[in-house]
Design brief:
Blueprint: E1 8-11, H1 22-31, H2 35-51, H3 55-70, H4 75-89, H5 95-106, E2 110-118, H6 121-128, E3 135-143, E4 148-152, H7 157-165, E5 172-177, H8 183-187, E6 189-195, H9 199-208, E7 213-216
Parallel strand pairs: 1-2, 1-5, 2-3, 5-6, 6-7
Antiparallel strand pairs: 3-4
Helix pairs in contact: 1-3, 1-4, 2-3, 4-6
Organism: Micromonospora halotolerans
Pfam families: HAD
Keywords: Membrane, Transmembrane, Transmembrane helix
């Protein structure tokens, strides 16, 4: 099978391969590891937290919390803390999706993890999951003099553009996600899979996504 004929399988990370919003939990971990960071973040939370839910102000809020979490840390220190956090966070793995990913690898497919979680955390989590050789396309950060700053996003339609930038021809063959925000990714796929979606998200995604959508659940949650 040549590179041009290999099937492409794209996986989300958060709530698809591992449970939870990885970078949000990591940022919270950094904020509460020292009292001064926790104190300042609690003071600013009434201002920043509501901004997370509005598209025009979301980036400002993320930047603010990220700066509070990383101020005073070098890039090497930030990466080391991300790797430490990943070792625990990767234990929240979602087996049904990871099994599918391994099946794609065994079949010789090109497997890409595309996630809004930022590097270096996304790469560290994938390494802990035993996926160090799988391609990872993640949000990117830049180390500044006073902390880490978001540079390139990877959410919603940005995921499709980042795939194009990586040389992936659309449509892709398989897309796996849990999230309504990944509707552009699902629409760019021939075969679409939802990992343990809520009933509300499932109904909305089925209504919005053309073609069939297959739901995958762990054995304990299958109905």
């Amino acid at each position: 099978m040549t590179a041009s004929t290999r099937r492409v399988a794209v996986f989300d990370l958060d709530d698809t391969l591992v449970r939870g919003d990885s970078f949000a939990q990591f940022t919270r971990h950094l904020l509460f590891r020292q009292r001064w960071r926790a104190g300042v973040s609690l003071v600013l939370a009434p201002l920043l937290a509501p901004m997370l839910f509005l598209s025009p102000t979301r980036r400002v809020a993320i930047t603010g919390f990220l700066w509070l979490a990383s101020a005073g840390l070098s890039e090497a220190q930030f990466t080391a803390l991300a790797e430490q956090f990943a070792a625990t966070h990767a234990q929240k793995r979602i087996t049904v999706a990871l099994d599918r990913l391994q099946q794609h690898l065994a079949a010789g497919d090109r497997v890409i993890i595309v996630t809004a979680c930022a590097d270096p955390l996304a790469t560290a989590i994938c390494a802990e999951l035993g996926l160090s050789k799988v391609e990872v396309i993640a949000a990117r950060l830049r180390a500044g003099r006073t902390g880490m700053w978001p540079v390139v996003g990877c959410q919603g339609p940005q995921k499709v553009q980042r795939l194009r930038d990586a040389g992936v021809t659309l449509p892709i063959d398989f897309a796996y996600t849990d999230s309504l925000s990944d509707l552009p990714l699902l629409r760019a796929a021939t075969r679409r899979y939802l990992i343990e979606p809520s009933a509300q998200d499932l109904a909305r995604l089925q209504a919005a996504s053309p073609g069939a959508v297959t739901v995958l659940r762990t054995s304990a949650e299958r109905r």
